[in-house]
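Lab meeting notes turned into a lecture example. A postdoc, R.K., suggested we walk through two folding results consecutively so the class can see how the record format repeats. The first protein's sequence and structure tokens come next.
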Amino acid sequence: MKYAVVYSSQTGNTARLAGEIGAALPAARCVYSGPPDEKALDAPLIFAGFWTDRGGCAPEMQVFLERLRGKRVFLFGTAGFGGSEDYFARILGRVEQCLDGSNTVAGRYMCQGRMPPAVRRRYEAMLPAAPEKARALLENFDRALPHPDEEDLAGLRRAAAACAGA
């Protein structure tokens, strides 16, 4: 089956996941790989990747997802906060709501992703006013640094290959 890998990536984490999908599947079946674009609509299977923005996907990905009709869609994403499958499931559920009912969600995958240094500086600036909250945010920031790691990438490759029948 022909497929497209469409993604929005602010820090490079989701782009890295998109690259793993492309490496795990037959290149000859890929009709498009890149940011949201009409060229991707030629594929019956869409791998749609996003970075988490306010608990959902970035606006450009939302617009793309809303345009899909009659596709099999595999949603994948990254979030700076991690450690909870329930948290990831809530994000994926919000993103899934962007899809028209004529589409079929063929798979979902989410993992933690590293955040830019500016986020750490913002958390550090919070220390005097809210030390407990700031320390928790800083601990999460540090846990996120190695992500997506090899375990994250291997899980995505398995899920993508299973979805595409590769």
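The second example is placed directly after the first for contrast:
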Amino acid sequence: MRWSFALLAVLALVAGCARAATHSGWRELSAPVAGARVLELIPVRDGVLALGSVPSGTDRAPAAWLSADGTRWTSIPARPESPYGFLAELISAGVGERTVVLGQAFGGAHGNPRMTIWSGDKPETPDHPAELVEHPQAFELFGGPHALAVTAAAGLAGVTVLIGGWDGPDGRYGAATWTSVDGANWERHADDPALSSVPGELTGAAAITTGPPGFVIVGQTQRDRTQLPLEWTSPDGFTWRRIALPGTSALATRAGCNPDRCTVFGQSTSASPTVLCWPNDATPAVPGPAAGIIDTLKVIAEDSRTLAIVRLDGAAHLLSVDPNCADWQDIPLPIPATRVQMATLPAGLLLSTIDDDASRLWLRAHP
């Protein structure tokens, strides 16, 4: 019997050490509410904006929160105005003079994603959240037979830009944008000469952010079955400049900017794909880890390092590079995960590991 107790004690000690090692310097924080799925983390003045959903009966309901430090959360009221609004998960936002949020619900005859648009006053502090109100839109402004997708939002000054894909006036699918100055009324731009497809090509917008050039979109064009990485910049969200990133057989999929620079992540499309990092729009990409399937989820450009969440063969990794895309480091995550989001706070790096039912939040102090 004494041996049994001793063995159990040893096993408990080993299990406790394993859990501590698994967390690798991360401290778990409480979720905003039980069952919260935090799908996006966005820096705002004096804190972070979290977007996602909460359980609602057998479904999910839209939810958003503000926090100064990731430990104390203030709920932002969300007021749906359409049937899909009550079922939406909030997935992306543009924060300029107003906060404009993109939501997504699934339904309809084909179970396709149904986009919802929400807006509210710009959050001034985590203690004074502004209500998010849904603005129902005409179905064929964002959907219908000519639509590919609407995927992400970004805001700068008084303009919000959504990106996606559309069947343009010449019948060629390509990158498209939607713009709004109030979050409620939108204009689609499917024939911009810099974004849309010309004969013999197919453009696609993968992600949007803001940085020194203003708005920054990254994506690709396909010509003669070869994919070429692209970046588009705009000072105002209406007039775009197309920039061919150095390289061929590659995709640009995410960008992160600070006040001084933007770093673009993507991947090669060769038989042996690798992660790619462009330190700027004129320098060839630096290759990183290889994997059969690569998906970059988030890029943050800090002063001395750039951080990226990249999924390699289904497993999320936190990669770190210097401003020249050199010195690749793989920072251990607190737990194995397939879907992760992150944002920086004064106290460290805030992480959300996401599964089908909820998220777990983690904080890692700055080195």
